[in-house]
Structure formats: C-alpha cells, structure tokens
Give the backbone structure.
Amino acid sequence: MIVVLLGPPGCGKGTQGDRIAVDLGVPKISTGDVIRAAIAAGTPLGLKAKAAYDRGDLVPDDVIMGIIRETIAAPEQARGVILDGVVRTVPQAEGLAQVLAALGRKLDVVMLFEIPDELLVSRLSARTMCDACQMTFTGRAPGETHEECEKSPKGTLMRRKDDEPDAVRNRLRVYQAQTAPVIAWYAAHGANIARVDGVGTVDEVRNRARKAVGLS
C-alpha cells in the first residue's frame, strides 16, 4: 500500500505516519530522509541534490522525484510505503503520479489530517526547546531551566521563532495556499482522499488513521 500524508504543521501526521507504517508493516520515508541518504551514498541524483544545497538553492523537483523513484523501486518498499512531506505542491503531485506510473504502482490513499487553525497555533506556541540539547517540551515556559540536560547543566528552554503565534499563522497561510490546490488536483484525478480528524489523543487519531487505510 502506498499512502501520501498531508496536513498542516503541528497536525501530528509525522507521529501518526510512524504508527501507521508499523501497523501496515511498511517503511515511512520523507523527502529530507531520502535526499540525505542519496547524498550520503553519493548517487548521481544525490550529487545533484548536494550541489543545489551547496549553492543555497532548493533541490529541483525533478531531482527530488528521481530520488523518490529510486527509493520506491528498492526491494524494501515492495510491500508499500508511507510518504511524509513528499507532496507539498501540484507539480510534486504530478511528479509522484508519473513516478508511480513508470513503476507500475498506484497511490492507494491520500491521508489528509485536519485540525482547526487556532488549535494548531496554541499547540505549536506551547512548544519549547532546550537551547543546549534541542529536546522538545510541551507546556513548559520559555526561560525555564532544563535541569536534566545531558549537554549543559543549565540548558534553557526557548520557543523557536517559527513557533511564535504570528509565525505559526503565517506558516498555516502558506500551507493552505500550497495544499488546497493539491487536494483539488487529487480530487480531480480520482484519488482516494481520506480526511482524518486530528483532534484528540494520539490513540484516538491513530484509530481514525487505521480506518482510513482499511485497518480495524
């Protein structure tokens, strides 16, 4: 089974993707993971990606999709794969469709996690990170000391700039601008779009996600 995960920042799709991958017995991959692996392996496409990074440029979609194709074609993905962050724009959706067609594979489910924007704002802005070890916390205020920090006895909790409420709202606006056309594209091409309510406990959302991929 091949599943594409979509959802706004902070919706929990990464967490749920890990769990659904275990439930289905397939790997979960992200764009960043496969690009880093290709660069480390020194593949031709990996070298092109590294060159883009070294120039400070975005990795071109054709290079990304070439790396995704190599990854999906590997024996480890024969039973399927969960794709997290692979599709963010319509050109990427089109590119993935071409990759799957060339491999004789099909996209089974587009899993779209949905959460009200203001809940995401409050969730992300409640997140802090130790400035020494980068451990993430929820519900602990900026300025608190991370007493148990392994790297510094006085690690200080801080809120990332992109987790400030205004920054989160801007990230959500960007997501909506990019993703609404992607959802429309998949709908127009007859994809199975499973909308998953992302509000609730991890287990509650996991049960909804399991149903979206046909698990009880």
Q: What stands out?
A: The chain has eight helices and nine strands. Helices lie at 13-24, 31-41, 44-55, 61-73, 90-103, 117-125, 165-188, 202-212. The radius of gyration is 19 Å.
